[in-house]
Amino acid sequence: MLKISDFDGLGNLPKTPSRIVFGTNSMNYDENQGIYGEPIEYEIQIERVTEVMAELLTINYQGLQKDIAIDLPPIIRYLTIYDIHVNTWKVYLGLRWHDNRWYSPVNDDALITLLYSAITP
After folding, report:
1. Residue 113: what are its φ and ψ, rounded to 5°?
2. Sheet-wide strand order for 40-43
3. What pLDDT was estimated at residue 2?
4. CB of 88 within 8 A of CB of 81?
5. pLDDT band (50, 70, 90) for residue 90
6. ∠ CA 116-120-121 to the nearest 5 degrees?
7. Contact 79, 88 (CB under 8 A)
8. 29 near 76, Cβ under 8 Å?
9. Mean pLDDT of the chain
10. 120 — pLDDT class (breaks 50, 70, 90)
11. How many C-beta atoms surround the C-beta of residue 85 within 10 A?
C-alpha cells in the first residue's frame, strides 16, 4: 500500500497548509450533451483546511494488476494546496499512475464527503 506522499512530487506536502482549493467537474454536468464540463474550483473554508489535509494524508492506495484495462471515470477531483510561502502542489484524487502501474485509493470516501461539506458557498 502507498500513501499520497509516496507519489512523485508529493513527498513534501505541507502538514499545515495555508490554503486549499478543491477542483471538480462533478457539479458541472451538461444534461443536453450528457458530459461533464471543465472543473470548477472551490475554496476550502480556512477553519477546515487542517482537517482536510489530515484526512488526505490517511488515504491508502493499492496497486492494481498490471494487465488490467482501466476505464477512467469522467469525474475529475483535485486539490491545490498552498503553504505560507505560496508554494503549490496539485494533488489529483482517485486513480493514480505511478511506476508503470495504476493505483486505486481504498479509503477516500471520508475525504470526498469532507471536501463537499468544507467548500465555501
Report:
1. -60, -45
2. 40-43, 19-24, 77-82, 88-92
3. 93
4. yes
5. very high
6. 90
7. no
8. no
9. 93
10. confident
11. 8
The one-character DSSP state at 4 is G
Q: List Cα–Cα distances, 85 to 21, 57, 112, in angstroms.
A: 16, 21, 27
How buried is residue 66: exposed, middle or buried, by Cβ count under 10 Å (0-12/13-18/19+)? exposed
Dihedrals φ, ψ of 98, to 5°? -155, 130
Whether 91 and 79 have beta carbons less than 8 Å apart is answered as yes
What does DSSP assign to residue 26? T
Written as nine digits, the cell of 41 is 474550483
Chain centroid, CA 7 distance in Å: 13
